[in-house]
Amino acid sequence: MSRKMKNKVITNLAIERIASEGKCVGHHEGKVVFVSNVAPGDVVDVRITKGKSSFMEGEAIHFHEYSKDRIEPFCSHFGTCGGCKWQHINYDLQKTYKRQQVLDQFQRIAKVPIPEVMPILGSAKTQYYRNKLDFTFSNSRWLTREEINSGEEFERNALGFHIPKMFDKIIDIEHCYLQGGLSNEVRNTLKEFAREKNLSFYDIRKQEGLLRNLIIRTTSTNQTMVIVQFGENDPESITLVMDFLKAKFPAITSLLYVINTKGNETFHDLELVTFSGLPYIEEEMEGLKFRIGPKSFYQTNSEQAYELYKVARDFAQLKGDEVVYDLYTGTGTIANFVAKQAKQVIGVEYVEAAIEDAKLNSQINGIGNTLFYAGDMKDILNDEFIANHAKPDVIITDPPRAGMDEKVVQMLLRLEAPTIVYVSCNPATQARDLALLGEKYQVEKVQPVDMFPQTYHVENVVRLTLKS
Predict the structure, then answer these.
(1) What number does CATH give the domain 132-285?
(2) Residues of the chain with CATH 3.40.50.150
(3) Residue 23 gets which letter from DSSP?
(4) Residue 328 assigned as binding residue
(5) Which of 6, 33, 107, 336 is deepest in the core (most CB within 10 A)?
(6) Beta strands in 184-261 (DSSP E)
(7) Which residues fall within 8 angstroms of residue 89, CB to CB, at 6 or more apart?
(8) 441 marked as part of a ligand binding site
(9) Per the UniProt entry, what is one GO biological process (predicted)?
């Protein structure tokens, strides 16, 4: 950005609409201006932080008018914590913007004929809907400007979330409205216990400290998993913490810990110790049980995941004699969910541990018509694989945010399955893939689903059928 643009202030900018990734849009002297933490209808002064030939980005520094669609955020951490960026926008409008986001991406990127995008399926819960949260211990609590200017000394140990774009600063969370159950009580009680016992909170810069991370997972069946991640191998202190949690919270059904001295918080390659209870929790859906281990993936909004999977199953229009390929199957949730309506379901997933979970979930539920394979999708879905299995009548694909590898898309075009159901957490990459699939497929249905209220994220399900 040129020096001339840096810190330039645009006054009385009218915020017009919401764009991708939750940013809002205004226009100034023929350029688009992207602004965060505002709402359509706001009139603001904006300090420019980034400028290009065709657009600028900035931050609102003064409000002249507030949008009529604004509401009062319910969380005291709003605006600092980066988790719920749309709390200031009423939920009906959030849904409208999310549906529009799908439509915009399809028109701009997919450029294939689409039917009318159906009304978005809203989440019954707009608070306390998440079943998994990760909290980070830190000896470097983020301080407000007021605290810094006061010159006073403040408690620096914190347990909460990373401040956006600041890897070493953690906002201390008092109450989080994302997860219900024992979540807030466990976090706050453990934090106070650690402070009282002078247990060290992690120093991310020095890569040292006992208490590093806390993960809480819950289910609709009232089971709770708590995982404590320790940054040091101190058996006496570890036992002190785990004994405290076990005694204080007998409702925890799965209490585990892991010692992690690596440079990051990921623990998929580390051994977890079950301190108390079972090494897993179980979710239920239409009588099916899904076992969730500490390393398992499961959709983080359990109740809305059920609605999402019902849409996918409905779009598949299974009659009972179809062979279904479930690509990016994860722990086999969709595969097992549709298995009763299909002749056979073949699931493919990159993560080997997830495939083991998928097989286990089939076994637990007495499902005998599923097959699961682990491997890179673009490598495993080849001519040899197809030759060794029946050709698919229906393909369900639920890729990560990056979408499908182009080799996978080309294989789908070669397979020519009569129906493809494409579940996506990123309408932009979904639209990109639909542009390629448009060579042989037409879009029949588009159904957005809101999995994450108070955020700009939206899931989308598309039914594609082979052109005649």
Answers:
(1) 2.40.50.1070
(2) 92-125+290-466
(3) -
(4) yes
(5) 336
(6) 211-218, 224-230, 254-259
(7) 39, 69, 70, 71, 97
(8) no
(9) rRNA base methylation
The Cα–Cα gap between 301 and 283 comes to 11
pTM over 0.90: yes
The DSSP symbol for 438 reads T
Positions of CATH 2.40.50.1070 in the chain? 132-285
Closest CA to 90 of 73, 74, 71, 65: 71
| Strand-pair partners of 435 | none
Give which of 219, 235, 216 is closest to 273, Cα–Cα.
235
Half-sphere CA count of 439, side-chain side, radius 13 A = 11
Q: What is the pLDDT of residues 232-247, one digit of tens each?
A: 999 999 999 999 999 9
- CA gap 229, 255 in Å, rounded: 11
The answer to whether 236 is annotated as binding is: no
Q: Rounded to an integer, what distance in angstroms lies between the CA atom of residue 386 and that of residue 374?
A: 15
Contact 388, 362 (CB under 8 A): no
Q: Which CATH architecture has domain 92-125+290-466?
A: 3-Layer(aba) Sandwich (3.40)
Class of domain 8-65: mainly beta
Catalytic residue among 24, 84, 176, 425: 425
266: how many CB neighbours lie within 10 A of its CB?
A: 12
Judge whether 176 counts as a catalytic residue. no
Q: Is 398 annotated as a binding residue?
A: yes
Question: Lowest-pLDDT range, 3-7, 70-74, 176-180?
Answer: 3-7
| CATH 2.40.50.140 residue window(s) in the chain | 8-65
Q: What is the pLDDT confidence band of residue 408, given thresholds at 50, 70 and 90?
A: very high
